[in-house]
Design brief:
The chain has helices spanning 2-27, 52-66, 93-114, 127-131, 140-151, 153-167, 177-189, 193-206, 211-223, 227-240, 245-255. It is an all-alpha fold and 259 residues long. The chain starts with a helix and ends with a helix.
Length: 259
Amino acid sequence: MNLRRRVGSFAIVVATLAVAVAATARVAPAQQRFEWPEKAKNLKVLPKNTPKEKLSATMIGFTRALGVRCPFCHVGQEGQPLTTYDFVSDQKPTKDVARRMVKMVANINRDLSKMKFPEPKRVTVACVTCHRGRPRPLTLAEELASVYESAGIDSTVARYNTLRDRFYSSGSYDFSERSLNEFGMSLLAEGHSPDAIRILSINVEQNPKSSFAYSNLGNACAAAGQKDLAIQNYEKALELDPRNREAEQKLKELRGVAK
């Protein structure tokens, strides 16, 4: 009897909960689905009669080209439904910048259309031409220089590793030896030889078969007074490419050999 009562009580509880859940489901409003407007408001660069299909494709193209999401230009909170966004607002400065960039691209393509090229198919530019998945289309050397100026060499190296992990195969940055050579030699020209050595050492690690990378590292070591390391790097540069005249000449100078 007791077991029967407990089973009956449990069934009543379950039934009560089911009724409560069902009632809650009826009361809770369904989440409103975002719909692209048939007629968009506050279009200042795109044609005012842009159909919603074209508007959708254009906006999605912007986000992919710059590697950003809607809140980059529009008033809204990341993670919240698009129905909560104020797409009409001009509050964010990035929206005005985006409009100016769209005008710039249109002007470039207009000028290109007037030029005479031997190739039958013309080249046009778009946001992705420069941005390649980044909000600011800096070169790798420029990106590293910006971090170095504000945060120093440790943060710069960390930034390089992060960018390489994220963008290496995307084409967003030039990860060939040219970028680190450019940045490392700019540090050397500014008198930051220890930091130049660090950057150019990374370049050698990433490009172990580059004679040019080794000779530049040799230049940094020589400037820092590290004669033995400079000689080692110049020797490696010549081993990889016996025609590297810079490495050959610097090696003679360090060894005290007459020209």
